Amino acid sequence: MNFEKIEALNQEIDLFPIENKADTENFRIKFLKYEIKALMEEIKNIPAEQRKEYGIAVNATKNKAETKWKEAQEKLEQNEDSNIFDNFDFTLPIAAHASGAIHPLHLVKQKVIEIFERIGFSVADGPEIEDDFHNFTALNFPPDHPAREMQDTFFLEKNPDILLRTHTSSVQVRMMQSQKPPIRMIMPGRVFRNEAITARANCIFHQVEGLYIGENVSLVDLKQTLYHFAKEMFGEGTKIRFRSSYFPFTEISAEVDISCGKFSETTCKICGGSESVCKGSGWIEILGCGMVDPNVLEACGIDSEKYTGFAFGMGIERIAMIKYQIKDLRLFTENDVRFLRQFAGVL
Ligand code: PHE
């Protein structure tokens, strides 16, 4: 009769479902702690001649239960979190989650693209390694003209014809050569100038240039476009002013400043009132622009009698420095996470 009990228990052990931590523990308590112990205590009631056999059978059952329990235990350890909810304290605070951040130069580039795409500009790209024609000659830089020295150039392979582009105006040339007006495009990209690296200059930086060629494109269009851009980028109350300037590829040419908060009722959003960026003037330079010189249109195969156009170009680093009050350009390339992390969630 006692042997039947053992047999029944063996079956029960086999069939007992263990799915999780709680089952494992229930199994241990039921079989190892009580049932098998009870069978062992029973041994004193077993007739002497059967005791040996009985003992062997109970031992086998005990081993069976222990093996099953150990296996379940191991499985749990390997798979700790699969049953995470068994013993989960839902009142625990959430573990801090470090999200990544978008690089500030990328943020600004995307914002510029977004602003101009909404008013009908598309995005164009071009090579970083250029020839003299696209970077200078087509843009009305005469040979040996001192204007070439405004942009200290990296030449490649000792060949003065092949260089790293000094501005993304080279992409404008490529677009004018390959497209029929109206052309309305912006060209974001990396540019290179042979300059010492300081807090305010780097030999590699980023620009976005814009180009609009069509019939009757006028200075008013340029002004309105840039005014719209300034408000979208720096906030509704932003004013702009044009200062006469010189670029070989535009006639007339101007530099554009935005108003900072110096003369407004509220604290300056750019420097917080310290005047560190505007140097007390209330104005901050953000870009160069002008009406495309007819010589440039002709060099690119566009009829300058029929079409006019405007162009502008800005440094992405400069816009980012103004927008996020960054004092040193080198921070953009040092990849210090303490700097980069500050842009998590900024859009
Ligand atoms: N290419 C000029 C620069 O790199 C910027 C510019 C573009 C100025 C278009 C006027 C018009 O400085």
Can you put this structure into words, describing what you see?
29% of the residues are buried. The chain is built from eleven helices and ten strands. The longest helix has 31 residues, at 48-78. The chain has two domains: 2-82; 104-343, Bira Bifunctional Protein, Domain 2 (BirA Bifunctional Protein, domain 2). The strands form two sheets. The chain has a seven-stranded mixed sheet, with helices on both faces. The chain is an alpha+beta fold and 347 residues long. The structure holds phenylalanine. The site of phenylalanine has 11 residues, from strand 9 and strand 10. Phenylalanine binds at residues 167, 169, 209, 247, 250, 288-290, 311-313.
List strands and helices in order, with pairings.
Blueprint: H1 2-15, H2 21-41, H3 48-78, H4 104-118, E1 122-123, E2 129-131, H5 132-135, E3 155-156, E4 159-164, H6 169-178, E5 183-192, E6 204-214, H7 219-234, E7 240-247, E8 250-259, E9 283-292, H8 294-299, E10 308-315, H9 316-324, H10 331-334, H11 337-340
Parallel strand pairs: 1-5
Antiparallel strand pairs: 2-4, 3-4, 5-6, 6-10, 7-8, 8-9, 9-10
Helix pairs in contact: 1-2, 1-3, 2-3, 4-9
